[in-house]
Specification:
single chain, 420 residues, alpha/beta, nine-stranded mixed beta sheet, two-stranded antiparallel sheet, 15% strand
Amino acid sequence: MKQARDHMARPRAENPRTKAANIRLTEEERAEIEMVAAAQGYGSLSEYFRVLHARFTEEEGLSSGVQKTNTREFPANLLRPFLKTDLGQIFWGDSRSYLFNKAQASSVDLIMTSPPFGLVRKKSYGNEDADRYCDWFRPFAEGFHRVLKDTGSLVIDIGGAWVPGQPTRSLYHFKLLVMLVEEYGFHLCQEHYWFNPSKLPTPAEWVNVRRVRVKDAVNTVWWLSKTPYPKANNKRVLQPYSKSMEQLLKNGYKAKLRPSGHDISDKFNRDNGGSVPPNLLAIANTESNGRYQDHCRAENIPIHPARFPAQLPEYFVRFLTDPGDLVVDPFGGSCVTGVVAENLKRRWACCELSEEYLLGARARFVPELQPLPKDRGVPYEIASPCARPVEEQDVPLFEDGGAERPAWMRKRASPKIAAE
């Protein structure tokens, strides 16, 4: 570890270190402290004392504000190049090494990622417990802020979590958003919601069994930036006009003041090539067969269980970057972001800790680049609320709010299961 530290340049201080303090030491004490500091890779006693102070105040809860990451803990040489293409590269290792010691400061145009969700039960891809999620995320947030351009964007797809044993939701993803804004100075440009029409009714216990919640089919997608004005253009992501709008453009529209108070001018008749999309992104995540999955099955490689569909990063890459811009995914997984960026002529980098997931990701680029999906599917319909008539007296509410399983299920269960 010492050899890796010795090759690291001393991080530049944000404030000039012009003050000195006298510490009375014996020759033996000084020699012993210098030996320990050198063994751990510190270039000077002052640097060693500052790190010790930071650790002490963090442990004792005495410090105020955001704790700085010790960047020497994540040297660039811990990243291993895994695969290189014409425009991008996959790195095997901790993305904090990339964020602090590989990438240049203010060099990234878009961070497009889906970090491990703060689920309450551990999954195979290493998610963090919801209660500790923000603490775990802080070094990444610091690294994101370091590498992102003032004109760049940070897009985080993050799913929600349920409190164990209750039909109530964790607030971890909202706490993460507040932390990014209040502690690290990011701006919330706009929240998006990824609606997955094909998502199964979950959580089954509360949706299908006790019938006190509805299907959880939406992920939040936070779009943030370092300044209030990242580059963007919604004309890059227009959607087709509705049939009614096509008729209006064909037949014309009389400008008038609506009852709502909106003044609809004659500019409403202008054909702009499509309509501005809403911040609800309807994308079915249904791909179960394809080159990536076939390769994983043939090679007995684990298929990443939390892949997002290519259309999700494609939307933000087109919306927020230009060809030649740099797109980074610090939680690369099966490198969907990378294959999208390569297809759209953006430079890119993906980092991933799991070699098994990268062995599967290779199939997206070798022997040739996997193209973006041509079939965009049909528009999805969302039924109006209460569209199916119900006789309320025949469907009484569960007065206990789902605290107990339905009686018919309790009768079928064994005494042991019922007790549990």
